[in-house]
Amino acid sequence: MDTQRDQRDAPEAAVAAGPRVPESGQVAPGGDRPPAPPPPDSAWRVLLRHMRQSWRPLLLGGVLGLLASVIGLVLPLVVRRLVDDLGADRPVAGVLLLMGALVVLSAAAGPLGEYVLRRAGESIVLTARRRLISHLMRLRISAFDSSEPGDLMSRVTSDTTLIRQVAADSLIGGITGGVALVATATMMGVLDPVLLVVTLGVLAVAGTVLRLIMPQVQRASQEVQQSVGLMGAALERVLGALRTVKASGAEQREGAAVHRAAEESWRSSVRAAKWLALAGNTGELAIQLAFFTVLAVGGARVTSGAIDVGTLIAFLMYVYFLIGPLQLLIRAFGQYQVGAAAITRLQEAERLPAEPENPPAPLPAPETAPASLEFRDVHFRYAPDLPLVHRGVTFSVPARGMTAFVGPSGAGKTTLFSLIERFYEPTSGSILLNGRDVGAWDLPELRAMIGYVEQDAPVLSGSLRENLLLGAPDASDDEMRRVLRTTRLDDLVERLPNGLDSLLGSRGTKLSGGERQRVAIARALLRRPRLLLLDEATSQLDAVNEAALRKTVTEVARTTTVLVVAHRLSTVTQADRIVVVDAGTILAIGTHAELIEAEPLYAELATTQFLPANHR
Ligand SMILES: Nc1ncnc2c1ncn2[C@@H]1O[C@H](COP(=O)(O)OP(=O)(O)OP(=O)(O)O)[C@@H](O)[C@H]1O
Description:
- Keywords: ATP-binding, Cell inner membrane, Cell membrane, Membrane, Nucleotide-binding, Transmembrane, Transmembrane helix, Transport.
- GO terms for molecular function: ABC-type oligopeptide transporter activity; ATP binding; ATP hydrolysis activity.
- By secondary structure, the chain is α/β, with parallel strands linked by helices.
- It has 2 domains: 43-350, ABC transporter transmembrane region fold, CATH 1.20.1560; 373-610, 3-Layer(aba) Sandwich (Rossmann fold), CATH 3.40.50.
- It has 21 helices and 10 strands.
- The strands form 2 sheets. It has a 6-stranded mixed β-sheet, sandwiched between helices.
- Strand 9 (577-582) and strand 10 form a beta hairpin.
- Helix 4 (93-137) packs antiparallel against helix 6 (149-191), helix 6 packs antiparallel against helix 10 and helix 7 (193-239) runs parallel beside helix 11.
- 40% of the residues are buried.
- The structure holds adenosine-5'-triphosphate (ATP).
- Residues 145, 382, 386, 389, 407, 409-415 line the site of adenosine-5'-triphosphate.
């Protein structure tokens, strides 16, 4: 057993309603095992990391917000001066002018500060989205296989949006509100320390109530985001197979799952709204209570001569000014709970195993020699708790020529191709491309050598041109025309309303199955692969197109190493060698004539599956 490979066989992530993070690190290309991902950061830390890149606008927005609050604080003092001046019959023009200037300044600083903060919040959302999108693009196939694409999408679209609230409103709102609260309390203390103690006593009771409410907000918010993810996953499931859903008469049943998730999201949102409203109301109530308490105690103090009426009026104004910062703080805490739930979900997605960030390698030059391939005692299982798919697979394929893989369904043929592409790593054993372990290749360089046509020949939404250029963005129009001719797609291009620029529909639904397969083959050929993997790539072609493509593939096999998973007689018999796979082992390797004599399973497949009885 190859210990290096053993180490590489790391448990991969799985997803229930969303992705689960693996227990330990997964494998890095080149065979190095990266350190296990660090434990998830607290929401605050993540938030601060996001905010570091936008600290200037956040600071400016915070300062402007503070300025507006400070002006609000100064105003009562100006009012007291106005009352005093009016009482003493002094001129008030200067005070009135100052009041007007402060009001205008406050009106300008407030909205400007808010705009700057919101803009910074949007930049933070953009960064979080870019980070997550880049990560998802590099996601290992094993992690993707265990995820719900709809749920991953909701993390990019919905969860990232919530970071803005936390960054722009929660943290800055919290700091601004906190500073304004302390400043207001200081002013109140200067006016009358006794009344300040009375006010703080009332507010402390409200604080205790709020500490009971906030965890409820976070719980409800987590449920909201989870159900939004579930809704995305359920919707993707239906829309991704709408024809099958309709043909199965399952619209209502499948729709019900989406409705259930939507209703669950609604229920949780309403629950969160209820707790948030209660929190806001607690703040309001506390201020009302503080106002009346201060009025009663303050009235007694005016009567006793401890303070004058102007001081009491100014103090009562400050009590009302507390509403702003207090509401800001309550909202900040509420939004922090919502954002913390979203940050947890983003971190989950960011911790899914991904391939390293490498720029794509250039395609090999046309004169590059075709690749040879060797499997040495390869064992593989998809997950530690699943049975072995390959049990000691050993074979070698020289450069050039066509090798066909045949065997019963589920024998492990497609999985061989996944291992060559390094979508998965073998549990033990090694795979050598041109004599070099695939694990030691630079991943983009390895994939640049290979043209791969998947079993269901996916076509992406977009135009035919975009589909062809997917793997060879620099291909010239001439090269494109050439592969279109070899795959007999030139007729199709002429028929399509906008030629190469015609849109093919989501997953290529506007094409026939055979056309889709030919587009997928053309795309792979355009990459000038040194190793071409065709997984039942011609299964949906009619006899004429199949014969034409057979000729093309034979032609390609003169300069390239071609591996095909085949169920068709014609493909199998033209192969230079046939590898018979059964239950994850290689039963035999030989030509059609050799195998039909020597290998009973092949003879059986030949008679029952892909060969007419008289073909020998
Ligand atoms: N992503 C996956 N996770 C877990 N098990 C998988 C996965 N993909 C395939 N398998 C299992 O691995 C085994 C081999 O599958 P594979 O697709 O390689 O077979 P195959 O020989 O290509 O079959 P067919 O001829 O039907 O396409 C099957 O038992 C299959 O259920």
